[in-house]
Amino acid sequence: MHRTTLLIIATFLAMCTQLFSGDATFYGGAQNPGALNFDNALGVSSLSNQSGAVFGARFSGGQVLGFEWSAGVSPNFLESSQWAFNTQTNLVIGIPAEKLIPYVTLGAGFIRTGGAVTVIRDIGSRFTINYGGGLKIRNLAGPIGVRFDIRGYTVPRISVGPANLQTHLNFLESTIGLLFSW
């Protein structure tokens, strides 16, 4: 019984150490619309090669099994007259190996768009799903490191074009960021 108690305490302490290990990343990158996007609904290809910038921050806790909250702004979301604010909460599964932590992530959140109405109607505030992965390189210079991330986003049930066709929006986001870990 004594060994079992020690094993439970050791497991609990290891889990607490993982929970209080965390990082913050300030990132920049690009967003590209996917092939299953407005092109299917509108029969046009005007958006298929347009990408926009994204800037934001991600805050993570845990290394093996953790969580993450992120917020980003896209000043030219899929076309120059649109902007977007995106916030997500994710589950993160990582494989810590010294300074390198490859990870996969899955989460949900909200996106809010605005700007002039052109091909894309202002989709307002919508639910989103995101999935992806990346690599954290921690402690390159003290607590400072680098993070690479690729995510796919899906925004279901939005209206596009003059006929208000219902479709979903898919886009890919690639980012690189400055990582601060503790």
Secondary-structure topology with pairs:
Elements lengths: L1 H19 L1 E12 L4 H5 L9 E10 L3 E10 L7 E13 L5 E16 L9 E17 L2 E17 L4 E17 L1
Antiparallel strand pairs: 1-2, 1-8, 2-3, 3-4, 4-5, 5-6, 6-7, 7-8
Structure description:
The protein has two helices and eight strands. It is elongated, with a radius of gyration of 19 Å. The protein has an eight-stranded antiparallel β-barrel. It has 182 residues and is mainly beta. The protein has helices at residues 2-20, 38-42; strands spanning 22-33, 52-61, 65-74, 82-94, 100-115, 125-141, 144-160, 165-181. Helices cover 13% and strands 62% of the residues. A hairpin with a 7-residue loop joins strand 3 (65-74) and strand 4. The longest helix is centred in the first third of the chain and has 19 residues, at 2-20. The chain has a single domain, classed as Beta Barrel (Porin), CATH 2.40.160. Mean pLDDT is 82; it is low at 36-49.
Describe this structure in a few short sentences.
It is elongated and about 70 Å long. The protein has an 8-stranded antiparallel β-barrel with strand order 1-2-3-4-5-6-7-8. Helices cover about 15% and strands about 60% of the residues.
First-residue to last-residue Cα separation: 36 Å
**CATH class call:** Mainly Beta
**Secondary-structure element series:** HEHEEEEEEE
> Cα-atom Rg, whole angstroms?
19 Å
Main β sheet profile = 8 strands, antiparallel, barrel
| Strand count | 8
CATH topology: Porin
Which of globular, elongated, flat, extended, rod-shaped describes the shape?
elongated
